């Protein structure tokens, strides 16, 4: 018995698309199965679009390595494919003297991650670059940028289809089972109908759906996939013109980067995301009593005292696919292959939260390397 298809990628977010791109470059015939009616309509279109430099992640972790590699690949890919991006830079600022030690620690982590262009600034150095920014010290990261995530996904889709890949929309994968010949059978639900298809290689790049799907992946009895702990992030947009030309981040608070200001490719500013652990996947913007807006004004004014009253407007919500519970240490990207579950031709990705957009092309190459033809 032979498999119907060579390689199936479950999930058409930026990571699934980048994996499919890398696999088609390596010669695979790839089918992307996406449960929504459009590619990239979940986390990949509900994020900050920042091209991260790789400042914070533990040295040697997948997040650190794939972020730094992915950043270089992404700048090259955008330039070669006409995808809008800007290397606008970022200022990470300490607003109190007792935050300076943490700032130095982050500078040291960045250096260990191979980010060798960061510059420590004093208050005057910050004011010279961003006159409205109030801080006692800061770290300038010139290689941080911003990308048009939709343009990126459209370009990846074009590469995949022009190399003979296929993208099937409205196709939700409900289970994956192993056949005796080693290939895998997928059940898919589309327009109320269930069908089965077999594939030689399967990649679970289902983002927020990856852990739930893994419960229906029958490959090895002893394999326990991670648990999803979703964490919601709300954004407010700035209704007036931004006085800043770079992204501005306060000091991180544990796993949360704080209420930061990011610019899109057109220079429009937004603030967020905040961090709210939840057990529901809902994109509703919760702020009936205005407490969330009040918190945003308060946090932003710590570094931008000139934020005018009434300048914030409710924006959108994204949900981080975290695989660690509140209060636990941040988990690395989990990319499971043979080492974790014993099967050569099945790769599953969990916990691909930030910097997954930045790292997407590097993740693609990494996964392609796990599935030789
Ligand atoms: C609030 C927020 C801000 C962020 N900011 C940044 C940032 O500034 N920079 C950065 O680098 N990263 C950022 N990230 C991270 C980045 O957005 C993600 O890492 C990236 O988008 C993940 O892409 P993905 O393809 O894995 O997931 P997704 O975009 O969620 O794609 C998964 C796809 O799988 C589909 N799917 C799910 N289940 C099934 C199924 N059973 N069958 C078929 N299809 C299925 C879904 O419909 C979806 O389209 C941010 C994330 C969040 C939440």
Relevant terms:
9 helices, 21 strands, 373 residues, single chain, alpha/beta, 2 domains, D-Amino Acid Oxidase, Chain A, domain 2, binds flavin-adenine dinucleotide, nine-stranded mixed β-sheet, FAD/NAD(P)-binding domain, five-stranded antiparallel β-sheet
- The CATH homologous superfamily of the largest domain is named FAD/NAD(P)-binding domain
- Please tell me how large the radius of gyration is: 21 Å
Q: Helix count, per DSSP? A: 9
Distance between the termini: 18 Å
CATH level-two architecture of the largest domain: 3-Layer(bba) Sandwich
Choose one word for the global shape: elongated
Please identify the structural class as seen in this structure: alpha/beta
The largest sheet, given as strand count, sense and whether it forms a barrel, is: 9 strands, mixed
Beta-strand fraction estimate? 25-35%
Unique bound compounds: flavin-adenine dinucleotide
Count of all domains:
2
What is the H-and-E element order?
Answer: EHEEHEEHEHEEHEEEEHEEEEEEHEEHEH
- Mind telling me the CATH class of the largest domain? Alpha Beta
Sequence stretches where pLDDT stays below 50 over 5 or more residues: none
Binned, the helix content reads 25-40%
């Amino acid at each position: 018995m032979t498999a119907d298809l060579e390689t199936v990628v479950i999930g058409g977010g930026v990571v699934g698309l980048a994996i499919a791109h890398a696999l088609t470059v390596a010669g695979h015939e790839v089918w992307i199965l996406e449960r929504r009616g459009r590619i990239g309509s979940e986390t990949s279109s509900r994020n900050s679009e920042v091209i991260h430099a790789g400042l914070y992640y533990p040295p040697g972790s997948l997040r650190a390595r794939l972020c730094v590699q992915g950043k270089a690949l992404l700048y090259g890919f955008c330039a070669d494919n006409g995808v809008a991006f800007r290397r606008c830079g970022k200022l990470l600022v300490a607003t109190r003297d007792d935050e300076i030690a943490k700032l130095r620690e982050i500078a040291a982590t960045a250096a260990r991650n191979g980010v060798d262009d960061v510059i420590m600034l004093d208050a005057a150095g910050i004011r010279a670059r961003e006159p409205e920014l109030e801080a006692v010290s800061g770290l300038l990261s010139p290689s941080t940028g911003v990308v048009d995530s939709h343009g990126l996904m459209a370009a990846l889709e074009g590469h995949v289809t022009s190399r003979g890949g296929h993208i099937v929309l409205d196709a939700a994968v409900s289970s994956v089972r192993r056949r005796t010949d080693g290939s895998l059978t997928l059940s898919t639900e589309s327009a109320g109908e269930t069908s089965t298809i077999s594939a030689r290689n399967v990649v679970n790049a289902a983002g927020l759906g990856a852990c739930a799907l893994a419960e229906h992946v029958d490959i090895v009895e002893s394999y326990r996939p991670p648990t999803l702990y979703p964490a919601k992030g709300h954004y407010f947009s700035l209704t007036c013109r931004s006085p800043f030309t770079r992204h501005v981040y306060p000091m991180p608070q544990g796993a949360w980067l704080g209420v930061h200001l990011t610019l899109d490719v057109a220079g429009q500013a937004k603030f967020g995301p905040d961090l709210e652990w939840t057990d529901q996947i809902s994109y509703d913007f919760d702020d009936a009593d205005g407490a969330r807006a009040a918190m945003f004004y308060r946090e932003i004014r710590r570094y931008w005292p000139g934020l005018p009253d009434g300048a914030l407007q409710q924006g959108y919500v994204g949900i981080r696919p975290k695989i660690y519970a509140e209060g636990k240490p941040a988990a690395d990207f989990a990319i499971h292959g043979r080492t974790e579950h014993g099967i050569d031709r099945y790769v599953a990705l969990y916990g691909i939260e930030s910097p997954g957009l930045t790292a997407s092309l590097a993740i693609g190459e990494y996964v392609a390397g796990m599935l030789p033809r």
